[in-house]
Amino acid sequence: MAWKKYRFGTQFYDALSGECIVYRAGRVAGIELMGLQAGDTVVDLGCGTGLSFELLVAAVGPTGQVIGVDASPQMLQVAAKRAVRNGWSNVRVLQADATHISAADLAVDGIPTPIDAVFSAYALSVMGSHPAVLERATTLLKPGGRVGIVDMQRPVGAAKSFTPLARLACRMGGADIEAHPWKWLTARAENVMQTSRRGGHIQAVTGILK
Ligand SMILES: C[S@@+](CC[C@H](N)C(=O)[O-])C[C@H]1O[C@@H](n2cnc3c(N)ncnc32)[C@H](O)[C@@H]1O
């Protein structure tokens, strides 16, 4: 269980994750690319400590909703505190394994929650079986729903010299730098858009599922 790595030291995750200097750029690019609309409901799959919440809340506005899903209760605790601290009443968190999640898990008092988009940042490469997770994610979406993936690969071109650093960052987080989970999406989606940051190390891809 990859998420079990995320049980300890979660209060230090934000400081140690290289967020400011490296990884926020991908988050920003991926969420921009998704083109979320005011009022949308978006699931943040493998939300961790909720580092994407601020950008997602800004994108869906006060009438939209953000549902952070993670298997680690300790990561979710930090995420929930973040939401309360910032007064984001339209954010809720849910402990669930993304490999088995279903629409029933997202329902409130038995009432289904229609999902406009599923977003995942730096989590699918940790999950091991990302195709199975993405197949499940599509069952949560409304027809024509959007998927956005931000994840990592080896840097390319002039940035290749940073490969050892990129590998180290991935190894520390339990991510497989060769997983390339966005390729699942590019093979299945329409209106695919892709951009990269940090010498190609970060790939952001979005598309609408057929
Ligand atoms: C590297 S962190 C990324 C967190 C966050 N998305 C971010 O951008 O900082 C990976 C997260 O995926 C979660 N995770 C790993 N396997 C999972 C699974 N099967 N189901 C749900 N969450 C999982 C971990 O608990 C962890 O919080």
Provide a descriptive summary of the structure in words.
This is Demethylmenaquinone methyltransferase/2-methoxy-6-polyprenyl-1,4-benzoquinol methylase. Keywords: Methyltransferase, Transferase. With 210 residues, this protein is an alpha/beta fold. The chain has one domain (2-209): Vaccinia Virus protein VP39 (Rossmann fold, 3-Layer(aba) Sandwich), CATH 3.40.50. The chain is built from 9 helices and 7 strands. Strands 3-2-1-4-5-7-6 form a 7-stranded mixed β-sheet. The relative contact order is 0.17. The mean pLDDT is 95. Bound molecules: S-adenosylmethionine. Residues 2-3, 6, 17, 46-48, 51-52, 70-72, 75, 97-99, 121-123, 126-127, 173 line the site of S-adenosylmethionine. Residues 2-3, 6, 17, 46-48, 51-52, 70-72, 75, 97-99, 121-123, 126-127, 173 line the site of S-adenosylmethionine (SAM).
Strand neighbour order, sheet with most strands: 3-2-1-4-5-7-6
Specify the number of helices: 9
Overall, the morphology is globular
The appropriate CATH architecture is 3-Layer(aba) Sandwich
Share of residues in helices? 25-40%
InterPro entries: Methyltranfer_dom, SAM-dependent_MTases_sf
Protein name: Demethylmenaquinone methyltransferase/2-methoxy-6-polyprenyl-1,4-benzoquinol methylase
Keywords: Methyltransferase, Transferase
GO molecular function: methyltransferase activity
